[in-house]
Structures are given as C-alpha cells and as structure tokens.
Amino acid sequence: MRPITRRVAARDGLLLNALDWAGDERRTPLLCLPGICRTAWDYELLAERHAGKRRVVALDYMGHGDSARAAELSRYRPERAAGDILDACTALHLPRVVVVGTSFGGLMAMVLSILRPTLMRAAVLNDIGPRIDPRGLELVGGFAGHDPGFAGIDDAVAYLRGIMPRVPLPDDAAWRRFAALTYKQGEDGLLHPRWDTRIQQAMEAGGGAPDLGNAFRGLRPIPAMLIWAEASEFLSAETVREMVRDKPDLELVTLPGAGHAPTLEEPELVRPVDDFLDRIP
C-alpha cells in the first residue's frame, strides 16, 4: 500500500510534509516521528505492516525530507518542532495517536506528553531517554552539519559504515537502503543530506540537550515501550534503569550489541513492537 503525501501548514505558514497510509479509522492512528537527521520514509516498512489495520502517518520535520526549509535559523529550535507536530495533528485530524518516536522523535513524544497530555494513547521510544549521553551529542554534532556531496551510493555507504559502525543493519542491501534514505541526488549530480545542515547550528545555539526527566514522567499514565540498543551512544544503561524505576510498567526490549539507532526492522524487534502496537485499540 502506497501512502498519500500530505502538505500541511504550520501556524506560521511553513509547509510540512507527511506520508499518510489509510487504515481502520476506529483504531488509534500511529504517528511516526523520525530521528533528527532522518525522514518520514524511514517508517515505510513499519507502516506497510500496520496500514489497513489502522491509519499510519509519518512526518517530516521542518527542514527535513520534503518539508520546507526555514529562512531563519531560530526556526529549527526543538520547541518549534513540537509546535509543528501539534499543528500537523490538527491539520491531519489526529486528536489522539500512538507515537512511535526514534531518537529525536522520542524526545518529542516526551515533550508532547506535557504540552498536550490527551494526545497520546501509547508510545514507543526508540533508543532514547530523558537524558542524552554526551557521546551521542558528539556523534550527531559531527554528522548533522556535514554535507559530503558523495559521487555515488557506495561512497555514502562507506561513510555511514565508518561513523555508525554499530547501527544494526544486517547486510549490504540494508546499508544501501539506509544510505538512500539519508542522502538524495542534487542538481549537481552529487548526493546531499535529506535535511538542512543548518540544524547543527541551531542545536549548538540551543546550548545542549535539556534534562527531560519531568517530561518522561508525562508518559506514566499510558502504555509505553522502550527499545534500547545496548551499545547505544545516546542512551546509557544508567538512564534505562532510571526510566524503568520511574515507570515500572515500561516494556523494555533490548537489542544486544547494537548502537544508535535501531531501524525497527530488526528481526528481534519486529514481533515485540508489532505485538505492542496491536494491543492498543
């Protein structure tokens, strides 16, 4: 099933792109929020598994994928992204959702649980918690603002394998798909990031990642699952223990030996994630 592409306006008029898979309108839709250097198409395979059973919407943040680029750097501040998500939910008629959030998308889920407590019926946090390990900030800091301009997909694969060696991708075909979802051919014939690399400047201007411990507690009333890549550069074992202590009913699924971030297509994850989502009306 192919999605419908939706173009919706944030309150300041900036156009946001969303992929919308149809499904049973009686069930709570999935709202899929990607990582900071990722796009809505990362969720294509998950959406194909759940489309028909329920509606699935995946969103491109401002400056990512097919959403518009911002003129002002300050437009890329995380709090503006949270507002955009709420605006998109209104425009797309999503009064209540199950959020699947990878990395930055999981941070947005925590923030949304405070900004609009009635929005979420359940949440899946993919390799992210209320405190980001400094190693993760260092990793994304060297990646988000870099435009290598690769001559071809093989160069892109080699680069990604070098800086993200523990991303749990099983074979060359999976790495090529991952690279194709990361870079896109520009008018110059070279491969460039599918995001505005100025987001790195916006993150640096923001002064680092905040502690979202209070926001994570906003998930206490709802069912939630945490995917933890055991060798994650973003999510430490200590933070995982704190999350389980703060929310004892948190469903924890661990991917041994993996780094940030799982694609949710790993065989060890597909069944538990799908089973969790299928239990949500």
TrEMBL record:
<dbReference type="Pfam" id="PF12697">
    <property type="entry name" value="Abhydrolase_6"/>
</dbReference>
<dbReference type="InterPro" id="IPR050228">
    <property type="entry name" value="Carboxylesterase_BioH"/>
</dbReference>
<feature type="domain" description="AB hydrolase-1">
    <location>
        <begin position="30"/>
        <end position="270"/>
    </location>
</feature>
<dbReference type="InterPro" id="IPR029058">
    <property type="entry name" value="AB_hydrolase_fold"/>
</dbReference>
<protein>
    <submittedName>
        <fullName>Pimeloyl-ACP methyl ester carboxylesterase</fullName>
    </submittedName>
</protein>
<dbReference type="InterPro" id="IPR000073">
    <property type="entry name" value="AB_hydrolase_1"/>
</dbReference>
